[in-house]
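Deliverable D4.2, example record:
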Amino acid sequence: MKRCKTILIAAVLGALSCAPAPLAQAQFPTAREWNRHVVGWNLGNELECSAPGQDGESMAIGNPDGSLKAETAWGNPMVTKRMIKAVKDAGFNAVRIPVRWQCHITNSTAMTIDKEWIARVKEVVDWCLSYDMKVIINVHHDKWLEGRPLYQYKEENCQKLALLWFNIASEFLSYDSRLAFAGTNEVHIRDNWGKPEAENLAVQNAYNQTFIDIVRATGGNNERRHLIVQTYVCNPDFGLYNGDFIIPTDIDGNGNRYMSVEFHYYTPWDYAGECKYDYWGTPYKDCGPASPSTEEDMRAFFDKVTTTWAGEGLGVIIGEWGVTDHYKVSSEADKVHENMTFYCKTLVEEAGKRGFSTFIWDNNSFGNGGEKFGIFDRWKGMKLRAPWVIEGIHQAQESLSNQ
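Output generated by the structure prediction step:
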């Protein structure tokens, strides 16, 4: 296995002529230090969009006409520095920036990135850093990668992933420790969110190892940069049990100290996403239709995560979480929103107690029902449209600051 990894890295570096010039390595925090007290926000449905007119599930790699307009292809306005400032002013101290690269590739053999696109990604990252917020960038909705976790494509995908991350990591080599990289997103067979086959898990593990190997090989600040690996489909259940998730091997001297495991937590789905139930939690069990899952289940689950991953020296990141706005009759909206505040407070507080960082999903979608995860209205100067969510987060931050 080690010989195969060495061959892969050598092949990638050889294909790109040479590695970047060495950079004086800064003192970087461990992943667990990086995550501590981080309460972050997702810039959802912006830089991870497909090109205008392109099927979002397309696996095509290229640089189609109009690809630089992908940012607005899913109905959101261009990201501005003002938007980022509003997020900072609301109390968030980190931003996760999902990025789709596959429709901005000028050479699919070398996985080279359109210079205008990488400049745009850097611009948004730089805005976040200018407000002293930590930042995560990832590979998000690259369907050639996410949608083919099969042995048939494993070698090809790992090589392309290595080339892509070599190019990304080289571009951001000089960035300081506030910037973290996340290797993949929700890898899964299309429309199949259920339990994976053994080969699906094996391919995800291979993606994670490839990502670690190639980023570290770029040297400089990337030797100690905070790198984030994922469970299959970012479902923690597919990483906590039966050896499904294999911790990647980092370079000598790093151990597990500069890596985090990422999972997404729209849990319980019957409340947070499906809208089957209006309420969640013991104090609200008699208010109306309530999920059988409670805060005790959340605590027990987070304890399992702590034992399994934090106990191995890894950081833990809840890369996405949220609760969609939902109520069955308008007269109950205030009570449901009060319950959403309780859910948000409980999640952020319980995660924070254990040193997990959290990044709430905001897709700028408002209303009542599924996928209504909007918080700030980007079309109206970042007007706060879900104050009950922010109130819960602030309550958690205040509670954590007093502990």
